[in-house]
Amino acid sequence: MNIIQAENYKQMSELAAKKLIEQINRKSDSVLGLATGSTPEGLYEEIIKEYKEGNVSFKDVTTFNLDEYVGLSKNNDQSYYYYMHKLLFDHIDLKTDQANLPNGDAKDLQEECSRYEASIQQAGGIDIQILGIGLNGHIGFNEPGTPFSIQTHIVDLDESTRNANARFFDSIDEVPLQAITMGIDSIMQTKQIILLVSGSKKAEALEKLVNGPVTEDFPASILQKHPNVTIIADSDALSELSQ
Ligand SMILES: O=P(O)(O)OC[C@H]1O[C@](O)(CO)[C@@H](O)[C@@H]1O
């Protein structure tokens, strides 16, 4: 694993944007894997800035998001569909039909998982995947105990994850109980991974990811086995590693 130390959140976001833009400028029809949560918000701001300055175009790019809540419609302002449009897609020249998220409002969720996984394969696989990490080591919404062999699937969200994400909702009761997420196997099949980690709250999780045992009890530990992972972390997140 290659670890890049950023001074702070802004620099982490700039470095990640630079890597994504280099990828697109090298291969205009790149397939990007995108993440939600607080961590990539700065990355998306940087990308929009670079796009507006004419440094990159997304017209041939395809994107796949990691996950989506079950039961929220696209118009719900807590859905990841809404988040991605508001924070990125509405500001760049990515074609709407090239921007993919699991449909958490599908009638047949199982079928939706298979359809989503197949559409990633049809697009030729993901060239570069952006990841964040949850405090309990989740990547996407793959909670501790998720089999490493699983592809896109429906998950019951951990109480700790619902609590962590309650800050985006009016109350914890409104946080969905389930989500659709790309599985660990789907993530491991991506060609390159950029993991973003910011803040002292994530320091312990990052230390476990890098130095801990590879175990389904801590899903992110599987990244030790991926051939091309770059971690971009700020100094607060790296505090447990550098001791
Ligand atoms: O960036 P945050 O908000 O700390 O979230 C960490 C991770 O948790 C999720 O939001 C899912 O809860 C992931 O999509 C994200 O990578």
UniProtKB/TrEMBL annotation:
Its EC number is 3.5.99.6. NCBIfam families: nagB. The active site is at residues 67, 136, 138, 143. Catalyzes the reversible isomerization-deamination of glucosamine 6-phosphate (GlcN6P) to form fructose 6-phosphate (Fru6P) and ammonium ion. This is Glucosamine-6-phosphate deaminase. It comes from Oceanobacillus neutriphilus. SUPFAM superfamilies: NagB/RpiA/CoA transferase-like (SSF100950). It catalyses: alpha-D-glucosamine 6-phosphate + H2O = beta-D-fructose 6-phosphate + NH4(+). InterPro entries: Glc/Gal-6P_isomerase (IPR006148), Glucosamine6P_isomerase (IPR004547), Glucosamine6P_isomerase_CS (IPR018321), NagB/RpiA_transferase-like (IPR037171). Belongs to the glucosamine/galactosamine-6-phosphate isomerase family. NagB subfamily. Keywords: Carbohydrate metabolism, Hydrolase. Pathway: Amino-sugar metabolism; N-acetylneuraminate degradation; D-fructose 6-phosphate from N-acetylneuraminate: step 5/5. The keyword Amino-acid biosynthesis does not apply. Residues 9-226 form the Glucosamine/galactosamine-6-phosphate isomerase domain.
